[in-house]
Amino acid sequence: MMAITVKPPSSQSPLFRYVSQNPALFLSRLICSGSSINDDVETIFRIVSCSNQSRNLKQALKSSGVFLSNDLIDKVLKRVRFSHGNPLQALEFFNYTGNRRGFYHSSFSLDTMLYILGRSRMFDKTWEVLVDIKCKDRNLITPRTVMIVLARIAKVCSVRQTVESFRKFKKLVPEFDTTCFNSLLRTLCQEKSMTDARNVYHSLKHNFTPNLQTFNILLSGWKSSEEAEGFFKEMREMGVEPDIVSYNCLVDVYCKSIEIDKAYKVVEQMRDENISPDVFTYTSIIGGLGLVGQPDKARDVLKEMKEFGCYPDVAAYNAAIRNFCIAKRLGDAYGLMDAMMSKGLSPNATTYNLFFRVFFWSNDLQSSWGLYGRMMHTGCLPNTQSCMFLIRLFKRQEKVDMALQLWNDMVEKGFGSYILVSDVLFDLLCDLGKLMEAERCFLQMMEKGHKPSNVSFRRIKVLMELANKHEALKNLTEKMAVFGSSIYLPGSTKSSAETSRLESLPI
Predict the structure, then answer these.
(1) Domain span at residue 474?
(2) What is the pTM of this model?
(3) Distances (CA, A) of 151 to 65, 171, 185
């Protein structure tokens, strides 16, 4: 009989360190727990969402009887992030759990907490958290952490301020190397412009050693083929050999620049260098052919790629379907969707959104509603974009029943953004005087841990005052107060305490 060896957890892992110092608590929770992790996550999430004072939060967490493991904390913070919960309450929860003896947060929890703070522009507290984590376990601060923080800063600050923030990480990360530099460049490509990324690259490249990933980041996203060719040339000159990602970036920029012939030449060059084009390569070609008005030739690529041993995925089919939707040839688009399903591939929300977009702009309510029914029947849940196409069309045509059906499906199945959809829904309900329905949806939203916008609250408040529903208004006001303010203005300068702590760190 073959012996099975179970590898013990690393002595450096957060779980090992916590269990070694709290064995009795861990074992009792492991053996006696009668609730599932999802129930525990829901319990703690509600505590975090509804506690408006630090003392109340701590007491409620202690009284809950829930073991606050790394996995549970990860899931709770993820819920807070996607529900747009109160960042100050989330930070209180993060600090409380992190200050327990022998406990260490996971990198996921840290990154999620920083994302929540950054989204609310609470940058002072972002740096405070990083300084605290640096002192406790510097290895939790990764290049992914760098990118998450810089992305939130870049959204509201200048390129210069973003680069200055990047330099602060020299005192925080274990290794301030090319990987961190790549995080900065990727952030600038996504949140600013390729031109900004190029300028910063040339300004800082002598302080780092650019690698293959550096150039792949800089090659992606260009609309100008000349700029992409320039980086491709510099890449070769520095002795960095391009890989399939590099070539795919070049193919993509040629296709978006409507230079299909050059894209095909790159594909031939790839084959000459024994680099087989993959599904990403062909998907770019399909998109490029659509831009030059050749949707039928693009559909043929789906067949041709199989001859080279590459099979189309959902994204490739979506690119071909998009071409027919743009050409308003919906029969061919539906045909491709059926063909995709016959190959065992399931259309995703992006697939359906291609049709929803056409129906929205053509004001075709019947087709939109029918497609929504088909989508739900197949088990493909709509995403936020799907919901917005639908709810805006329902508002335009004042279809309250359809709007409420969509909302009820969202509440029941948990898809879409409550924040965005509810604003349009409450506008519709208030415009038509549907106060009872608006109040019910408002309460449902808050029960799910989501804070309605202040604009929606004011609209419902006016209707309730006119209808003399003072008790109901008082109830809504009290529930809204639990969430606190969702608007946080960024400080123009750091606090002096935070500044001194950061500057005192050794480089």
Answers:
(1) 419-485
(2) 0.76
(3) 37, 19, 10
Q: Could you give the C-alpha distances from 331 to 289, 359, 370, 507, in angstroms and in order? A: 19, 14, 15, 63
388 and 425 within one domain: no
Residue 205 lies in a domain: no
Q: Check residue 52 and give its pLDDT.
A: 66
Contact 438, 460 (CB under 8 A): yes
Where does the pLDDT of residue 451 fall: very low under 50, low under 70, confident under 90, or very high at 90 and above?
A: confident
Residue 489: is its pLDDT beyond 50? no
SS3 for 445-460 is HHHCCCCCCHHHHHHH
Considering the domain architecture, whether residues 375 and 426 belong to the same structural domain is answered as: no
How does pLDDT run across 13-69, given as a tens digit for each residue?
Answer: 554 554 454 444 444 444 444 447 788 898 999 888 877 666 788 888 988 889 999
Q: For residue 199, is it within any domain? A: no
Residues 411 and 427 in one domain: no
CA distance 47 to 60: 7
> CA 153, CA 231: separation in Å to the nearest integer?
27
Instruction: Give the whole-angstrom CA distance, residue 385 versus residue 352.
Output: 10
Q: Tell me, yes or no, whether 406 and 442 share the same domain.
A: no
Q: Let me know: does 315 contact 347? Beta carbons within 8 Å.
A: no
* 3-state secondary structure (DSSP) of residue 158: coil
Please indicate, yes or no, whether residues 400 and 431 belong to a single structural domain of this protein: no
Question: Does 481 lie in the same domain as 423?
Answer: yes
**Burial (CB count within 10 angstroms: exposed 0-12, middle 13-18, buried 19+), residue 78:** middle
Which tokens in the block code for residue 302? 């789906």
Q: How many residues does the chain have?
A: 507
Is 424 in the same domain as 391?
no
Counted domains in the chain:
2
Residue 484, pLDDT score: 61
Q: Is 294 exposed, middle or buried (0-12, 13-18, 19+ CB in 10 A)?
A: middle
Cα gap 198→227, rounded to integer Å: 9
Residue 7 lies in a domain: no
Query: Is 386 part of a structural domain of the chain?
Result: yes
* Residue 424 sits in the same domain as residue 478: yes
